[in-house]
Amino acid sequence: MLGEDSMQKERVTVSPEMAAFIGEGMVDTATMSADAVVLCFTLGEDAPAQVTVTTGTVPPEERAILVLAVERGACLRVFDYAPDANIACHLPSELRMMVAAILDCTLPEPWRSTHRSAKCIELLSSTFQRIVEDDLVPLAGAGQLSARDSQRIVAAKRMIDERWGEKMTLDSIARACGLNRAKLTRGFRDMFACTVADALLDRRLGAARQLLIATDLPVSSIGYQCGYLNNASFTRAFSRQFGATPSSLRAPRLAA
């Protein structure tokens, strides 16, 4: 239980199974179920904007500006999902905007509480969806990357996702994102559990597969569009990735 002089976060009861703790200060964990799933949202300038997801047995992070506590049973009933392990991820801009909308609400009561409750449910739903779809960037191990370098690694991943069709090398990606080769390589492995080359390969071959299924373009043209200068290297890479040649993937559709 918190002492009488301790500053506490504002508590908002979203439902009988969900509460939000908003603002600076501590969370009185005595008001939380020991079986709660706890989401802590942090927007500090000295660390990456992040969300951590733990169980009620772990005290909420003191730096968190918003804490959601939801009964585990409610998570399973509503979302058919509840995390089995602790999670720590970077907070994307869409979720940061939801957090800001909760923190900065200026409506008078009772509209303020209603608005905040609705936004908390939206934030919970969107966060769980992104976790289930593996759409959040995990934080690197403690002490390995600064907040700025973490943002640069995220920028490198975004560059690959958006510009995979261009000629890119490890050096060119590192230069574009303001990192050296070693830091980019190590940071990419820490944050995404793959190499830069693997991420680029996945994007290019995934796009090639979609083109093979959805268009009638020649196989060689698709390979060239996806960064392969000759059909043989494209076929080898595609076969290793998907266990089938580009032509055999397209054959059932052509036969129909």
Which SSEs are present, and which pair or pack?
Blueprint: E1 10-15, E2 18-22, E3 36-42, E4 50-55, E5 66-71, H1 72-79, E6 87-90, H2 93-103, H3 111-132, H4 147-163, H5 170-177, H6 181-192, H7 196-214, H8 219-225, H9 231-242, H10 246-255
Antiparallel strand pairs: 1-2, 2-5, 3-4, 3-5, 4-6
Helix pairs in contact: 2-3, 4-5, 4-6
Question: Could you describe the 3D structure shown?
Answer:
There is one protein chain. The protein is α+β, with helices and mostly antiparallel strands and 256 residues long. It folds into 3 domains: 10-132, no CATH class; 147-193; 199-255, Orthogonal Bundle (Arc Repressor Mutant, subunit A), CATH 1.10.10. It contains 10 helices and 6 strands, in the order E-E-E-E-E-H-E-H-H-H-H-H-H-H-H-H. Strands 1-2-5-3-4-6 form a 6-stranded antiparallel β-sheet. Helix 2 (93-103) runs antiparallel to helix 3 (111-132).
Features:
single chain; 6-stranded antiparallel β-sheet; 3 domains; 256 residues; alpha+beta; Arc Repressor Mutant, subunit A
Supply Rg: 23 Å
**Count of alpha/pi helices:** 10
Q: Largest sheet, order of strands side by side?
A: 1-2-5-3-4-6
Instruction: State the distance separating the first and last CA atoms.
Output: 69 Å
Unreliable segments of 5+ consecutive residues: none
Along the chain, the helix and strand elements come as EEEEEHEHHHHHHHHH
Strand runs, count: 6
- Beta percentage is 5-15%
Rough outline: elongated
Tell me briefly what this model is.
With 256 residues, the chain is α+β, with helices and mostly antiparallel strands. 49% of the residues lie in helices and 13% in strands.
